[in-house]
Amino acid sequence: QKEVEQNSGPLSVPEGAIASLNCTYSDRGSQSFFWYRQYSGKSPELIMSIYSNGDKEDGRFTAQLNKASQYVSLLIRDSQPSDSATYLCAVYIGNDYKLSFGAGTTVTVRA
Amino acid sequence: EAGVTQFPSHSVIEKGQTVTLRCDPISGHDNLYWYRRVMGKEIKFLLHFVKESKQDESGMPNNRFLAERTGGTYSTLKVQPAELEDSGVYFCASSPYRGAEQETQYFGPGTRLLVL
């Protein structure tokens, strides 16, 4: 079983729609969860971090965490063409200081 | 504030040659990490420095890889001799201090290594 798994892409959504990205993780003790956005050839850029169960909103982005289900998601509302990128779910596994990443979900927003 | 920088951005070498990658973390960041993404796979951890000390090198593939961080500032990752399977994108990341598990890691743009 992979430590972090993301829903397979690619994901294509029309402009203005909601893009929904999902991620599950294997370590029940994980406490810190991150969503990075990566444009082609660029560095992964942090867009959201979440540590507590529930929702966390930042602009058009909402992260949702359910530790009991070992599930974290990212919603992108009012999707824009500039949101077209690969989204990476990352989790600190156990007490280590290294991040485990999912394979990424590529999102394309159609104008 | 300057972000994490990496050099070179691309490197193409032949099998058996040596390549050295460099990472300059964000100024003042004690933690420095190396990660790698090979084609079609997830980004995988290689090693972690706190200042000049290696804290965790459990992800280093084999002894052909040598990482250093003399003086606790920039870091180098040397691959010697390079093999075909070493091809991929090598990312460096940094974070401010150790002890806070929830700290964000800031990533550089990566070095794209192709071994022919």
Number of H- or I-type helical stretches of chain A: 0
Radius of gyration based on Cα positions of chain A:
13 Å
- Strand proportion of chain A, as a percent range, falls in over 45%
Q: For the terminal residues of chain B, how far apart are their CA atoms?
A: 37 Å
Radius of gyration of chain B, whole Å:
13 Å
Number of strands of chain B: 11
Instruction: Characterize the overall form of chain A.
Output: globular
Quick check: average pLDDT of chain B?
92
Shape of chain B: globular
| Residues in β-strands, percent of chain B | over 45%
Summarize the biggest pleated sheet of chain A.
6 strands, mixed
- What percentage of residues of chain B falls in helices of 4 or more residues? under 10%
Question: Number of DSSP strands of chain A?
Answer: 11
Secondary-structure element order of chain B, N to C: EEEEEEEEEEE
